[in-house]
Design brief:
heterotrimer, A mainly alpha, B alpha+beta, C mainly alpha, B: alpha+beta, Helix Hairpins, Immunoglobulin-like, 3 domains, three-stranded mixed beta sheet, C: Cytochrome C Oxidase, Chain A, globular, disordered N terminus, binds heme-A, binds dinuclear copper ion, binds copper (II) ion
């Protein structure tokens, strides 16, 4: 609560309204695409394009403001709070899907195979896990934990280490180690995504495992899919940070953007560990 | 200004209570032990709440009258008292425990669906109910096994749509085929649904249970007086959610047996349908009894089932005979039409909602309909 | 877009204000943004209200006169969605924007530019919702709760609603992060947490609730979307899912959501009652603890909306007990308000009238909530008009009346003019009377067995429905008085002094002139 300098209030900006126009287009576009309206893809693409323009412009502005020294210690605290609560909101988003997994696995699937429900409606169904569901005749193979997924775990954990290594370097002003650490982190992230893409291809073609494979398929792909999406975002953010580092941004005592991204990366890591245990392993 | 509004308030209250004489102000008369428990539970809690309400707002209005600036009251400055705060935390807590105790007993009674005398499976469809008397363990086992009924709104459409037509006494609460149960027997209702969630609700029985597609849930009642009991679907289930009533006729045990005999004789196919539980069996028995055997007869299928919607254009179904409505559809070609009728399209249920029909029967019905609509 | 200007830090606002539309499109000022939130929510209130009148008009008499049943369901659904997400929630965020910086002595919100984004996300969401009436198949008619599998059956309108919810969720999350950060990081020196005005406290807690549950709602509707279009089976038994799973996820959001709509109302009333009783709020700290307890309890009561889904007895009992417990902290609040009035020196200007009205009528809604919490009784009353009566008592007479109270209370600070007391009082009495005419009779309808969400009803419900419909139109017309009072106040009127209320003692009254200047507290006040 110290007020060394007045709190920075940015001047009026067009980026927010541009962003909401983007989302308007994207909302309509996505709904159109899903309902086979012809214009759909175009509307969606326009929306996405505006969104990227907005993000580029907005984040650029923030980076410039930061480098111009607009953000003092009080602003820094604001950023820390906001990033923490943003990550918390993401945790709750994943919690919804983990909750669905838990519910299906522990409650609804056993329910379908037992009691009056099993007896009257699904007499041929044996509950268990992994399973698609009583009305799905196709069979599939579940994803084992100790192949690619274990490798992926190793990749992500290592990337958590490298990003921390880079952070230490930033704090002591070792720019080379900083850049190298970031680069390695990005490389590991990209590698992870490749492995996941490979895994999905294998799931589709060899395991007959798709989104349509009932309880297992839905929870598997939605959880790993949203995680993968977050890794993608995290990687892009890391790339941005790397470019900013290469451009000489950040100081040993003033580099919240870097920290925010590394928090995010650790969060993505932790989600993966939960996935590994709850989706692949158990 | 204030006087005016008080007058308005008073006259509004008078209006309400005047009407109230003609209407019900409380729960429906309970007709089962459970409903009676619910009734008294509600009365108990309501009166506790009323007493608290009067006490709290008595205080407030006293303060409003006496502690106002216009009567020269000077503000005190107290703003804390741990003692009273503890008191008014503990007392409500104790009152709540007093409410929770009888409620707990009722919950446990309501959940006890064991040892029924008769088990009926109620299936919700968009928008009608199917009732199926399943083979049970209880005293009535064997009496009504395999009876399957389909029960839908009997109120004619013109009563609903035409304001000039006089509405009948049980407007919207009348069905074509009632569920019949014996009195003084424990009836277990299994609920499930075919499409979306519905809810089986008979207020006088204190019974309400969601019917969830793919799952079986249960509830029970034991009605003591013969009579007709009415209820409605109580979960939003789409367009005609307001038009799927439930009517239960409770009769003496002998009368029930006689009814069951007659009903079984009328639906021979259903009696054997083992394991008498397939959703299909309900429809097959109730709506297309002759469908199982004999040559494929499109008109029969149409009259027995499709006409329910296509006869009057219910649910947006193209009305048979309405050339404009059919011309574009016919233009899709007979194969497509048949495919849509067999697989369902939008609000049109697959095979008109009766999976027991063969493809040939449905196709024949389509031909029949097309013939009438060209 | 805007370059960083290199002037010195002591002068960190860029004092060039764009004018006209641009000012509103690009603003980073919390007062502008608050104003936009408030007008937006009022527009949505009118739209949602007109839909409600569509409902009431059809229900005026038995029989189907005006709408086809499917359109009636769309009216109900969109009325619920627009009122909850469009009217009530944004209105409270509007209050937060205006008042929090003023009440804690901050220069603005912590993230002024993101603040603008939070607001501007709402109009696209509203457009998506409204446009859904125009697409083939119309808007979604699955109820504002969007229960699967009915919602899986709907047409394109459902997808538009899903994306609207995503966007509104993003707006709420950003707004909440902003509010929390502002409160935690931007208080004036000396303003400790336990010295914050209660309105700020209630918003702090509300913002936490929002961050915790909006993402869960997003998850729920995302699963709905994939069930609809991508072949997942979350809510389909044949694929191992369960329609009831949707309800669990939805109500895990939904119950905290109802407290999101009432806690800030508690906050507003807690500012107003002491001001007009000329006596400090009774039991400040217990108010804070009670608010926190309500928020915490709200996470473990959700299944009281699902007593008829057929959960095991143990589940019913747990959720019944937990739900009943909420009466305790809420009771503490009610008692504290009455104790604040006790031995005060009260006057009854419009804000106080609405607050007293709030207290009286909200408590009735609370009691019907308690009655619904008792599982066996709920099983009888679930999905009847009794529930409709309950939640309009807490939402209209609760949230909405508190919003009116707050508007009249702060209008002098916002506009610099006094509102017309005559219009205000007229608005209050009309609202109060018509509200009760509309919704009180719904209790009887519900008890007698009228289901909710039906376009047509049986004969025996006719008289009460007619009364309710008349009341609804009266209540709607009464809101024109509000509009008149606000517009009149903005356009002129008696000049307001810095503190027109004898008993008001928060910073905006004690430290700022009326109207509050465009940039307030550039140097923070010191709170003793
Ligand atoms: C602002 C919104 C709001 C608020 C504050 C509340 C408050 C409460 N609600 Fe309500 N509720 C809704 C909005 C709200 N509700 C909505 C929108 C729905 C329907 C959703 C839908 O289906 O569409 C709903 C539905 C709903 C149901 C489900 C009904 C059904 O569908 O079957 C239940 C059941 O338990 C319930 C209970 C409660 C309880 C116990 C409280 C408690 O918080 C009330 C506590 C207050 C008091 C009890 C009064 C004051 C206390 C005292 C004076 C102390 C002394 C009292 C005693 C000891 C008794 N609510
Ligand atoms: C959140 C707040 C909120 C508010 C403020 C309201 C306000 C009103 N609501 Fe409700 N309502 C809900 C939330 C709310 N509602 C929810 C969540 C549901 C459940 C939906 C569901 O089941 O899915 C519901 C459902 C609901 C139903 C049940 C529908 C059904 O089950 O089919 C009804 C029926 O009477 C109703 C009526 C009203 C009325 C008459 C008002 C009035 O207070 C509205 C008054 C406002 C106006 C009328 C507009 C402003 C005035 C003018 C524009 C002036 C011009 C006026 C005239 C010409 C008369 N609402
Ligand atoms: Cu079936 Cu509502
Ligand atoms: Cu609730």
């Amino acid at each position: 609560m110290q007020h060394a300098q007045p709190y920075y209030v940015p001047s009026p900006s067009y980026w927010p309204i541009i962003g909401s126009i983007a989302l308007l287009f994207m909302g309509f576009g996505a709904a159109f695409v899903m309902n086979d309206v012809e214009a759909g893809p175009w509307v969606l693409v326009i929306g996405l394009a505006i969104l990227f323009w907005m993000m580029f412009g907005w984040f650029g502005t923030v980076a410039r403001e930061s480098e111009a020294g607009r953000y003092g210690p009080q602003e820094d605290i604001s950023f820390r709070w906001s990033m923490s609560w943003f990550i918390f909101s993401e945790v709750m988003f994943f919690a919804a899907f983990f909750g669905a997994l838990f519910y299906m696995r522990v409650l609804s699937v056993p329910d379908l195979g037992s009691g009056a429900t099993g007896e009257y409606l699904w007499s041929n169904f044996k509950a268990g896990w992994p399973v698609a569901g009583p009305g799905i005749e196709d069979t599939f193979r579940p994803m084992g934990a100790w192949g690619l997924p274990a490798l992926n775990t190793a990749l992500l954990l290592t990337s958590g280490v490298t990003v921390t290594w880079a952070h230490w370097a930033l704090k002591v002003g070792n720019r080379f180690q900083l850049n190298l650490g970031l680069f390695l982190t990005i490389a590991l992230g990209v590698l992870f995504l490749f492995c996941q893409a490979y895994e999905y291809a294998e799931a589709f073609h060899e395991y007959n495992l798709t989104l349509k494979m009932g309880a297992y398929g839905a929870s598997f792909f939605m959880l790993t899919g949203f995680h993968g999406f977050h890794v993608t975002i995290g990687t892009i953010m890391l790339i941005v940070i790397l470019f900013r580092c290469l451009a000489g941004h950040f100081k040993p005592e003033h580099h919240f953007a870097f920290e925010a991204v590394s928090w995010y990366w650790h969060f993505v890591d932790v989600v993966w560990l939960m996935l590994f245990v709850l989706v692949y392993w158990l | 200004m204030k006087k005016l509004s008080l007058v308005a308030l008073a006259s509004a209250t008078a209006l309400c209570s005047g009407v109230a004489v003609a209407s019900r102000l409380g729960l429906q008369d309970p007709e089962t032990p459970i409903a009676r428990q619910i009734y008294s539970l509600h009365s108990l809690i309501l009166w506790i709440c009323v007493v608290i309400f009067v006490a709290v707002f008595g205080m407030m209005f006293y303060a409003i009258l006496k502690h106002r600036k216009s009567v020269g009251h000077k503000a005190a400055q107290f703003h804390e008292s741990t003692t009273v705060e503890i008191i008014w935390t503990i007392i409500p807590f104790v009152i709540l425990m007093g409410m929770a105790y009888p409620a707990t007993k009722t919950v446990i009674d309501m959940k006890d669906t064991s040892n029924p005398d008769l088990t009926i499976k109620a299936t919700g469809y968009q928008w009608k109910w199917g009732y199926e008397y399943v083979k049970g363990e209880g005293s009535l086992s064997g009496v009504s096994d395999g009876i399957a009924l389909l029960s839908s709104l009997a109120t004619p459409m013109d009563q609903i749509y035409d304001p000039k037509v006089q509405k009948s006494e049980n407007y919207l609460l009348e069905v074509d085929t009632e569920m019949v149960v014996p009195i003084n027997k424990k009836i277990r209702i299994l609920t499930t649904a075919n499409d979306v969630i519905h809810a089986f609700w008979v207020p006088a029985f204190g019974v309400k249970q969601d019917a969830i597609p793919g799952f079986i849930r249960d509830t029970w009642f034991k009605v003591e007086k013969p009579g007709i009991y009415r209820g409605q679907c109580a979960e939003l289930c789409g367009k005609e959610h307001g038009f799927m009533p439930i009517v239960v006729r409770a009769v003496e045990e002998d009368e029930f047996k006689a009814w069951a005999e007659k009903r079984k004789a009328a639906t021979p196919a259903a009696a054997e349908a083992a394991p008498a539980v397939q959703v299909a069996a309900v429809d097959a028995a109730a709506t297309a009894p002759a469908a199982a055997a004999g040559p494929v007869d499109g008109k029969k299928t149409y009259d027995g089932l499709c006409a329910a919607c296509h006869g009057m254009g219910i649910a947006g179904a193209p009305k048979v005979g309405d050339k404009a409505a059919w011309s574009t559809r016919i233009a899709q070609g007979p194969a497509t039409l048949a495919k849509h009728a067999i697989e369902g399209i939008r609000a049109m249920p697959a095979k008109g909602g009766n999976p027991a029909l063969s493809d040939a029967e449905v196709t024949a019905a389509v031909e029949h309909m097309v013939g009438l609509s060209k | 877009m805007e370059a960083v200007h290199g002037h010195d830090h002591a002068h960190d606002h860029d004092h060039h204000h764009p004018t006209g539309v641009t000012r509103w499109l690009t603003t980073t000022n919390h007062k502008d943004i608050g104003t936009m939130y408030l007008w937006f929510s009022f527009a949505m209130f009118i739209s949602g209200g007109l839909l409600a009148l569509g409902i009431r008009a059809e229900l005026f008499q038995p029989g189907l006169q005006l709408w086809r049943p499917e359109f009636f369901n769309q009216l109900t659904t969109m009325h619920g969605l627009m009122m909850v997400f469009g009217a009530i929630m944004p209105a409270f965020v509007g209050f937060a924007n205006w008042q929090i910086p003023l009440m804690i002595g901050a220069s603005d919100m912590a993230f002024a530019r993101m603040n603008n984004f939070s607001f501007w996300l709402l109009p696209p969401a509203a457009l998506l919702l409204m446009a859904s009436f125009l697409v083939p198949g119309g808007a979604t008619g699955a109820g504002w709760t969007l229960y699967a599998p009915l919602s899986v059956q709907q047409g394109m309108g459902m997808d538009l609603a899903i994306f609207a919810i995503h966007i509104m969720g993003a707006s709420s999350i950003m707004g909440s992060i902003n509010i929390i950060t502002t409160i935690l990081n931007m208080r004036a020196p000396g303003m400790t947490l336990m010295k914050m005005p209660l309105f700020v406290w209630t918003w702090l807690i509300t913002a936490y609730l929002l961050i915790a549950v909006m993402p869960v709602l997003a998850g729920a509707v995302t699963m709905l979307l994939t069930d609809r279009h991508f072949g997942t089976n979350f809510f389909n038994a044949a694929g191992g899912g369960d329609p009831v799973l949707y309800q669990h996820v939805f109500w895990f959001f939904g119950h905290p959501e109802v407290y999101i709509m009432i806690l800030p109302a508690f906050g507003i009333v807690s500012q107003i009652i002491p001001a007009f009783a000329r006596k400090p709020l009774f039991g400040y700290s217990s108010m804070v603890y009670a608010t926190a307890s309500i928020a915490i309890l709200s996470f473990i009561v959700w299944a009281h909306h699902m007593f008829v889904t057929g959960m095991p007895a143990a589940g019913q009992l747990f959720f019944m007990y937990a739900t009943m417990l909420i009466a305790v902290p809420t009771g503490v609040k009610v008692f504290n308000w009455v104790a604040t009035m006790w031995k005060g020196s009260m006057t009854f200007e419009t804000p106080m009238l609405f607050s007293v009205g709030f207290l009286f009528v909200f408590t009735m809604g609370g009691f019907t909530g308690l009655i619904l919490a008792v599982t066996p009784v709920d099983i009888q009353l679930q999905d009847t008009y009794y529930v409709v009566a309950h939640f309009h008592y807490v939402l209209v007479a609760g949230s909405l009346f508190a919003l009116f109270a707050g508007t009249y209370f702060w209008l002098p600070k916002w506009t610099g003019n006094m509102y017309s007391e005559t219009l205000g009082k007229l608005h209050f009495w009309c609202s109060m009377i018509f509200f009760n005419i509309t919704f009180f009779v719904m209790h009887f309808l519900g008890l007698a067995g009228m289901p909710r969400r039906i376009p047509d009803y049986s004969q025996q419900f006719a008289d009460f429905n007619m009364i309710a419909s008349i009341g609804a139109f009266g209540f709607g017309l009464s809101q024109l008085i509000f509009l008149a009072a606000v517009v009149k106040c903005i356009r002129g009127g008696e000049k307001a002094p810095a503190n027109p209320w004898e008993g008001a003692d928060t910073l905006e009254w004690t430290h700022l002139p009326s109207p509050a200047p465009y940039h307030s507290f550039e140097t923070p006040p010191v709170v003793k």
